[in-house]
Amino acid sequence: MIIAQLTDLHARPRGELSYGGLDTAARLRRAVDMLLASDPAPDCVLVTGDLTDHGLPEEYEQVAEHLGRLPMPVFVLPGNHDRREMLRECLCGRYGYLRNSGDFLHYVVEEFPVRLIGLDTVADGEDGGELCPAREAWLGERLREGDGRPTLIFMHHPPFLTGITGMDSIMCRTSPGLAELIRRHPEIERVVAGHYHRPITVRWAGTVGFVTPGLGLPVALNLNPGAPTRFNEEPPAYAIHAWQPETGMVSHLVPIGEFGSAREYPPAGEPSGAHS
After folding, report:
1. Which of 37, 70, 217, 254 has the fewest beta carbons closer than 10 A?
2. Is 0.85 surpassed by the pTM of this model?
3. What pLDDT is recorded for position 274?
């Protein structure tokens, strides 16, 4: 099974740039082009929040236009830049699971070899996120129903510390029991998120936590305690999570852009570097 993960699209109204001139629509268009050209194609696409910059209907129109070109199932979640009910209203016609998801926009996808559990971590009016007791209880019930099947949990806010102080201050608040809940379910192959705008991998709660950098302006890496959050111009990227029964889950990052066509190795007439 091949799962693509897009995150932090930060769509603006048509023709409007963000972050001092960043064309997020062009980045999303290019990411979709690359997914359409992928061989093999992903079985599904996860979009882990911040679909828009301000939660406006015209921003969701941009998102729907670009994601609507994808032929495979697409599963979206809100982030702190989204408006939960506006997202539901604007996209539920295309993604029916949003209509049936209750107070929070989370749900389970059972139709693939890997179960997909999407968690809504939005805390209204805050940049940080949370899994309140009701949401943690919902997750526990869904995990118990899985009978040990391979599972991937996806959300917007990471529930683990990363050492990037400015972003860790707006991570996902959870109870101390969440990590123990995850640890009791070794079938969880990954907990994947966005929000931090850079690539991060961590061993957490007996599984692997993975943050995809996304399409918005990247956060600069600074591990000095108390350092302010700053941005730079690293290339945007999406993730590919590939699962097979023999290997489990393997995750890859795919930079978004034009990098030339793939070439044979070694180039004609040159040695491979191997020595006898």
Report:
1. 37
2. yes
3. 63
